[in-house]
Amino acid sequence: MQVRPDFPAGGALTFQNAGGDNIGAILTSVKLTVVPLPAGLPLLLTALGGLGLMVRRKRKAA
Protein backbone atom coordinates (compact mmCIF):
# COMPACT_ATOMS: atom_id res chain seq x y z
CA MET A 1 0.00 0.00 0.00
CA GLN A 2 1.34 3.40 -0.92
CA VAL A 3 -0.10 6.83 -0.07
CA ARG A 4 1.63 10.00 -1.22
CA PRO A 5 -0.20 13.25 -0.38
CA ASP A 6 1.27 16.42 -1.85
CA PHE A 7 -0.96 19.37 -0.94
CA PRO A 8 0.53 22.72 -1.84
CA ALA A 9 -1.90 24.95 -3.75
CA GLY A 10 -3.14 22.63 -6.49
CA GLY A 11 -1.34 19.47 -5.37
CA ALA A 12 -2.08 15.84 -6.13
CA LEU A 13 -3.03 12.69 -4.21
CA THR A 14 -1.85 9.21 -5.12
CA PHE A 15 -3.16 5.99 -3.52
CA GLN A 16 -2.26 2.50 -4.70
CA ASN A 17 -2.97 -0.92 -3.24
CA ALA A 18 -0.56 -3.20 -5.05
CA GLY A 19 -1.66 -6.62 -3.82
CA GLY A 20 -0.57 -9.90 -5.40
CA ASP A 21 -3.85 -10.30 -7.24
CA ASN A 22 -5.29 -8.03 -9.88
CA ILE A 23 -8.13 -6.96 -7.59
CA GLY A 24 -7.27 -3.86 -5.60
CA ALA A 25 -8.00 -0.21 -5.10
CA ILE A 26 -6.18 2.26 -7.33
CA LEU A 27 -6.75 5.99 -7.08
CA THR A 28 -4.01 7.90 -8.79
CA SER A 29 -3.27 11.40 -10.01
CA VAL A 30 -6.26 13.21 -8.57
CA LYS A 31 -5.85 16.95 -9.15
CA LEU A 32 -6.78 19.16 -6.20
CA THR A 33 -7.80 22.78 -6.66
CA VAL A 34 -8.19 25.61 -4.20
CA VAL A 35 -11.83 26.38 -3.44
CA PRO A 36 -12.53 30.13 -3.19
CA LEU A 37 -14.41 31.56 -0.24
CA PRO A 38 -18.07 32.01 -1.14
CA ALA A 39 -19.08 35.66 -1.35
CA GLY A 40 -22.05 35.09 0.97
CA LEU A 41 -19.97 33.82 3.90
CA PRO A 42 -18.87 37.26 5.19
CA LEU A 43 -22.47 38.45 4.88
CA LEU A 44 -23.69 35.44 6.88
CA LEU A 45 -21.10 36.02 9.61
CA THR A 46 -22.09 39.71 9.83
CA ALA A 47 -25.76 38.77 10.17
CA LEU A 48 -25.02 36.22 12.91
CA GLY A 49 -22.93 38.80 14.76
CA GLY A 50 -25.79 41.31 14.54
CA LEU A 51 -28.25 38.76 15.91
CA GLY A 52 -25.86 38.03 18.76
CA LEU A 53 -25.66 41.74 19.63
CA MET A 54 -29.46 42.03 19.58
CA VAL A 55 -29.80 39.10 22.00
CA ARG A 56 -27.13 40.57 24.27
CA ARG A 57 -28.85 43.97 24.42
CA LYS A 58 -32.21 42.32 25.07
CA ARG A 59 -30.80 40.36 28.04
CA LYS A 60 -29.04 43.43 29.40
CA ALA A 61 -32.25 45.53 29.26
CA ALA A 62 -34.35 42.88 31.03
Report on this model:
With 62 residues, this protein is of the alpha+beta class. It has one domain. Helices cover 35% and strands 26% of the residues. The chain has 1 helix and 3 strands; from the N terminus they run E-E-E-H. It has one helix at 40-61, and strands at residues 2-6, 12-16, 26-31. A 3-stranded antiparallel sheet has the order 1-2-3, with no helix packed on it. The longest helix is centred in the C-terminal third of the chain and has 22 residues, at 40-61. The chain is elongated, with a radius of gyration of 24 Å.
End-to-end separation in angstroms reads 63 Å
Radius of gyration from the alpha-carbon trace, in angstroms = 24 Å
* Oligomerization category of the chains in this entry: single chain
Cross-sheet strand order for the largest sheet: 1-2-3
Structural class computed from helices and strand pairing: alpha+beta
**Poorly predicted segments:** none
The counted number of beta strands is: 3
* SSE series: EEEH
Total of helices: 1
Topology (elements, then pairings):
Elements: E1 2-6, E2 12-16, E3 26-31, H1 40-61
Antiparallel strand pairs: 1-2, 2-3
